[in-house]
User: Fold this.
Amino acid sequence: MNIDLRTWDVGAVVSSPKSCVQHMVEMVESSWANGADVVLFPEYSWMSLERFVPDQDKLAGVAALFWETLWPELQQRLSAPGKAVVFGTAPWIAEDGSMRNRAPILCEGTPTYQDKIFLTPWETGFTGGSEVRLFTLQGITFAVVICLDIEIPELSAALRGKGVDAILVPSATESLMGVDRIGRCASARAVELGCYVGIAHLVGKTVSELVDDNVGRLGWFAPAQLPFANLEREHCTPVFHEGFEHLRVHLDKRLLEKMRGRRLETNPALLTMDGGGDLEIVRPS
Assistant:
């Protein structure tokens, strides 16, 4: 399976919400036409719409514009057999009025989503989600883990043994330390869960309280096991500050199956706590 990881420049000049949709549709169609099966866009890609929202509550305005007007069009235009897209994230408002940072996902024409679970200190207007929703394409099981969530060991532990083949990480950060944390934790998840992990960062500058200045890169990480010995197990682009970049990566399910069948090689993905209990921590008296 081929996957295209893409940056999104939130500050790029676009003339209307429709032009945002058209730009994304064209990039997805280009990826598909050139052999990609899955496309990943960054967290908060749809905050590009913020400039078109006259309301004082920009997040609510973006949420209404995306989910009510643009999402149906994206579903109609980008529904294709054997293909999937993770459209970054956009604010989403629940029936009780709470707001989620939600990733809209389209898999072979079927819409699904993933909410960000752990929130940064500046995501004060959001409520965290409570579940990880898996989806399957061409026999490969995916999880979408949004930005900070990839840094949380408890979430990784919850995914252990669930058969996840790849984790896709839409991310947004304004600092190189954030880029570093996401990349290093993505690599750790690939090792400890025995799966592939791909990251895509938001870039660009715009007038926004939430994503005003963004830097990032694209990265792909594979397990550190013998079946992967002859492959590049960590592939990261340089850090980008602006522009629409992409990285084509390859997921080989056969290598994952071969790895999972090896029982004499040290593999943390195959280990669990005896009895499933908590590890006791002993402090010196």
User: Anything to note?
Assistant: The chain has a mean pLDDT of 95.
